[in-house]
Design goal:
The complex is a heterotetramer, with two copies of chain A and two copies of chain C. Chain A is α/β, with parallel strands linked by helices. Helix content of chain A is 32%, strand content 23%. In chain C, helix 7 runs antiparallel to helix 8. The chains are: A alpha/beta, C mainly alpha. The complex binds adenosine-5'-diphosphate (2 copies) and magnesium ion (4 copies). One magnesium ion sits at the interface of chains A and C. One magnesium ion binds next to loops of chain C.
Amino acid sequence: MKKLINSPETVVGDALLGMAAAHPELIQVHFDPDYITRAGAPVRGKVGLLSGGGSGHEPMHGGFVGYGMLDAACPGAVFTSPVPDQMLAATKAIDGGAGVLHIVKNYTGDVMNFEMAAELAQMEGIEVASVITNDDVAVKDSLYTAGRRGVGVTVLLEKICGGAAEAGLPLAEVTRIAQNVNAQGRSMGMALTSCAVPAAGKPTFEIGDDEMEIGIGIHGEPGRQRMKLQSAREITEMLASAILDDLPFNRGDQVLAFVNGMGGTPLIELYVVYNDLVKLCGDRGVTISRNLIGNYITSLEMAGCSITLLKLDDELTRFWDAPVHTPALRWGR
Amino acid sequence: MKKLINSPETVVGDALLGMAAAHPELIQVHFDPDYITRAGAPVRGKVGLLSGGGSGHEPMHGGFVGYGMLDAACPGAVFTSPVPDQMLAATKAIDGGAGVLHIVKNYTGDVMNFEMAAELAQMEGIEVASVITNDDVAVKDSLYTAGRRGVGVTVLLEKICGGAAEAGLPLAEVTRIAQNVNAQGRSMGMALTSCAVPAAGKPTFEIGDDEMEIGIGIHGEPGRQRMKLQSAREITEMLASAILDDLPFNRGDQVLAFVNGMGGTPLIELYVVYNDLVKLCGDRGVTISRNLIGNYITSLEMAGCSITLLKLDDELTRFWDAPVHTPALRWGR
Amino acid sequence: MRITAEHVIRFIETIAARVKEQRAYLTELDSAIGDADHGINLDRGFSAVLAKLPTVADKDIGTILKTTGMTLVSTVGGASGPLYGTAFLRASMALADRYEFNEDDLVAALEAALEGIMMRGKAQRGEKTMIDTIAPAIDALKTARSRDVDAHAALRESLAAAEAGMKSTIPMLATKGRASYLGERSIGHQDPGATSAYLIATVLVETVESIQPEAG
Amino acid sequence: MRITAEHVIRFIETIAARVKEQRAYLTELDSAIGDADHGINLDRGFSAVLAKLPTVADKDIGTILKTTGMTLVSTVGGASGPLYGTAFLRASMALADRYEFNEDDLVAALEAALEGIMMRGKAQRGEKTMIDTIAPAIDALKTARSRDVDAHAALRESLAAAEAGMKSTIPMLATKGRASYLGERSIGHQDPGATSAYLIATVLVETVESIQPEAG
Ligand SMILES: Nc1ncnc2c1ncn2[C@@H]1O[C@H](COP(=O)(O)OP(=O)(O)O)[C@@H](O)[C@H]1O
Ligand SMILES: Nc1ncnc2c1ncn2[C@@H]1O[C@H](COP(=O)(O)OP(=O)(O)O)[C@@H](O)[C@H]1O
Ligand SMILES: [Mg+2]
Ligand SMILES: [Mg+2]
Ligand SMILES: [Mg+2]
Ligand SMILES: [Mg+2]
């Protein structure tokens, strides 16, 4: 396990210090409990958006704090949900009087910790709503299980709801849009290599030189299936078909296509996948009207990618297009 | 060697098709010869900026084509300089009557191919100037050798000269600024792992689980020195000291600090390095007034990073801050 | 049997030591069907608890357990943080203001802890979680006590049930927690949380066994 | 000796075949001190040349060589593209409009090719490049011919010099091309370009040797 770090114990803190030093005009980093707020938070009268989760998924979530996206992010230890203290402090710091939306990825740990934080915040008189993303079609959905994981849709949801909140929409409306984004989005991922949790010191899983994992999450957890390595086209087909069939996406649909790198895969490969995705969607009569290609929700140094498709309507498109200015996503200003 | 590709033969073309599909409002991709132009090129009366080089360094250069940066980019085969036909066609396509600046990284192949293209373009009556970047302090400079490699400064130069050209400066002025950027910038890189050229099918070099290469370039070429893996702080110190001592950068200098990932290193580690760099520069009385952190000039899936420091003056700062809108770099619009 | 605040503190200290010792093992188990952090998480949490313990050394058992639970909630994160945190918090309520307690109180505290875990995690037995260790252990303890065997023997029966429960997670299909994402592939691996729960049960039994039976 | 357009075509076709055969070896050599593409580059280029050859099959030797050179320039890229491309272009000028040529013409064409490489690459002997194969080979050819040995023997002496030249790059410190970035670490490796140049020299000698000495 080779990493550019000083120690497993300090990696999250060191990176937060680096972020603080790099983007003082955009964000403010608080320690103990650790959380990142938008510079100048809270914004009076605006709904506050808070997300969080384990570290190791950079730029998510800290890189999405700023104008038009998140008001705060809570980074946990690597791949470990942050604790309620962090969410509570961040919620208080960004409440501008219009309430706070918690954006939670559907992992047992995240859900429970956010739940505890929301209870505490509400006890302190802050209006808190929550949305849980669960877009990963690799996981069978069921009332009797933990359900699907939240993955790529989270990034899109944070951007779109950020636009809605910036436009002055009230908490109920922002929450409705958040639920809509989650309802209209689906994802699936795959890995060529494992990542290594710094404190664990070795790869989470072993994988052969000619193998890949299909249906992985973003924590180095093994996927649903191990198989022989295939071409980008076959891989894209496997991921995209599962996604397209699930919602389902239909002929005539307009979508936002998000090809995400897991951290160790270079951009050239993501564009190869995007090219195959365009053809596949075209064959199904699905039009890609917006796209996002790059490393946005990663799994440390894992090589691999995930695909997310989000069915767009006018409202979602408008808030996606709205200006955003964060360390990792910026347009329109 | 595991990659998300369809075949070594098609990887560059597939990725170009993906770029074309993803960014039609920004760029246009031409094939045979392969080159990418800014949508709407040529811009009448504006100096055209052309760069190019082997593929495998994405987003450089194609990802930097667009408003406020390059007018065209010529992608070669992976790690192989493009050929004069490409540069000639691209030069013609972007000449808006104010001449074209060729931005060439100092590699024998790139220099010779660009030279041939410039001769041909000039024979066709297009005014062509060239700037050769050679900022890599890992390589000893000498009149009798091929000299230093062009690396990270190239990205900064493309942005800054893009701003200058967009502002309407004539070819001579844009060339002067280009030379100034190159003169004021220094870089050095390191690798934790090798990359694998797709057509070669295996890693370019073998490296132990506890080793790193210091002073690597961006083509998987071995570095100046193999050593035991050290901490981010020690690595940053090694790279930054060599850079700071070389120009040299002095107490009171304002710099742009660019921490670049080689393709396989996740963002969290780049922020750890940036944090260490801030401290090191601070100790030397050098102020970082601008920064860029991310994967911008990569070496396929190589894990590692490079650091570039560029001494800023008012002119360079102004053109760095100027709006840019390309697939990979965007701000101000 | 009289279990005092001092014993409770020793119990928690020993858990911290045992978790540190087994940190790599627990993380290893979590690599197979989770995200390779369970041992790291618990070690971080119990190390923090260890640092906090001196501030409550002279306090009642409720306060000691409450501080432990709050510290776990504030430092562990992940799934196990809220779960073990809630367990200690619920136990602290069952033993509020007490400076010592007996076997009956122990059973009540353990039941409260389990209830807290099940409420927080919305899980049942048979879903391949820590519950599969804890629930049978409490059942066995209660059954043994209804047969009127002595406390130590009852605890040893309970521990055997805990071990069996832990092992029972191996063939299970996970339906809760991160392992559930693996579907069928979760089968054949021992659950990390069930394992850490067994570890804690071992420490509990050791601690009680070390108590001089003078007051028995 | 009469070297005809047909021989030249066979020469180029054989280079293409040999380069494809040795592609992995040349790339391997380039991994050690370069960027692992030399064999790939030349194979791409000579495959393109092969596809172009039929269009000039009935043309003069100058045209055949010019087409080869231009195709190499347009398809190889990297350092070797302009270098080998220029070499063939220069040779084409030396043999412009010819349908056959003799030993003297061969020497002149080779000298023109070398000059082109040195001009384009701004390099000299001793810098660990293809020049270290080509220059001594031409020298040896000229020396042998001044001693009046027969053409085949002279070419074999030249090929031996080419081989020695190629091997002489092993202990050299590279000062030109990509290997120069390695500094001292470039020592101990055979230069890929010097190796491909030797390959081409081998093919040249084989081609000439295959010519029936009837017109000798
Ligand atoms: N809903 C749940 N109810 C009870 N226990 C659970 C639940 N979800 C997970 N667990 C337990 O938590 C353990 C994992 O803890 P840990 O690895 O620290 O957290 P995370 O899964 O967030 O990484 C599992 O092995 C399981 O025993
Ligand atoms: N300046 C030069 N003059 C002559 N030959 C050179 C020069 N630079 C490089 N070469 C030759 O080119 C070879 C490398 O070719 P190739 O790998 O195809 O290109 P690149 O170095 O651009 O990847 C070297 O081994 C060397 O023999
Ligand atoms: Mg975890
Ligand atoms: Mg090359
Ligand atoms: Mg875990
Ligand atoms: Mg090469």
